[in-house]
Amino acid sequence: MKIKENVEKAINDQIRMELASAYTYLSMAAYFETKAFSGFASWMRLQCQEEEEHAMRFYNYLHDRDGRVELQALEKPAHEFGTPLEVFEQSLESERQVTASIHALYDLAVKEKDHATVSMLKWFVDEQVEEEKSALDMVDKLKLAGDHPGALLILDKEAGQRSSE
Ligand code: FEO
Predict the structure, then answer these.
(1) Is residue 32 in a domain?
(2) Which domain holds residue 81?
(3) Which ligand 1 atom is the nearest neighbour of the CA of 128?
(4) CA-based, 20 to 30 A from 1: which of 18, 45, 62, 152?
(5) Ligand 1 center to 150 CA (angstroms)
(6) Is the CB of 114 within 6 Å of ligand 1?
(7) What's the 97 CA to ligand 1 centre distance in angstroms?
(8) Is residue 62 within 8 Å of 9, Cβ to Cβ?
(9) Looking at ligand 1, which residue's alpha carbon is closest to its atom 1?
(10) Predicted confidence pLDDT, tens digits, the chain (165 residues)
């Protein structure tokens, strides 16, 4: 069954949000590179790749449903960020916004009785639990580390060991 126009539009908006997230994570990675936090930079690059994969899931799904992908303009991401804690807090806030957007999309799919989209979105609902958890874990650890350079370097190293899921 061809996807309804309003659901198609909401998915195109979600593709933009995922790609905007990818763009911001890449900018955060570049920022950490300049601060010699290569582990945090690597974490952010992996996160950027995950966001691209999220966008492509929606992209493929729209085509599967005989829908039309319409890419939108992305804003220039921030260039300067703060401490590692502030960067990861920003990441957590961004993930919470993505979660709210996925939930709104889910509600729309339920309202439209679009069962296929509801089913597809269940993966994203679960994924967002993981996305928020991994950002929150880093925020909690960075709070414990405070301003201690040794602790920050240990966390940087740990972040660099993250592998793609
Ligand atoms: Fe695609 Fe991090 O949400």
Answers:
(1) yes
(2) 5-160
(3) 3
(4) 18
(5) 30
(6) no
(7) 9
(8) no
(9) 51
(10) 899 999 999 999 999 999 999 999 999 999 999 999 999 999 999 999 999 999 999 999 999 999 999 999 999 999 999 999 999 999 999 999 999 999 999 999 999 999 999 999 999 999 999 999 999 999 999 999 999 999 999 999 999 998 865
Q: Which of 46, 144, 125, 37 is nearest to 87 (CA)?
A: 37
Q: Which residues contact 110 (CB under 8 A, 6 or more apart)?
A: 118
Atom of ligand 1 nearest to the CA of 18: 1
- Give me the DSSP letters along 20-35: HHHHHHHHHHHHHHHT
What is the atom index within ligand 1 of the atom nearest the CA of 131?
Answer: 2
CATH value at residue 124: 1.20.1260.10
Residue whose tokens read 């992908």: 69
Matching residue, tokens 């793609």: 164
pTM: predicted TM-score of the whole model, two decimal places: 0.95
- Ligand 1 neighbour 131 (Cβ under 6 A): yes
54 Cβ closer than 6 Å to some ligand 1 atom: yes
Q: How many domains does the chain have?
A: 1
- Whether 156 lines ligand 1, by a CB cut-off of 6 Å, is no
* 60 SS3 class: helix
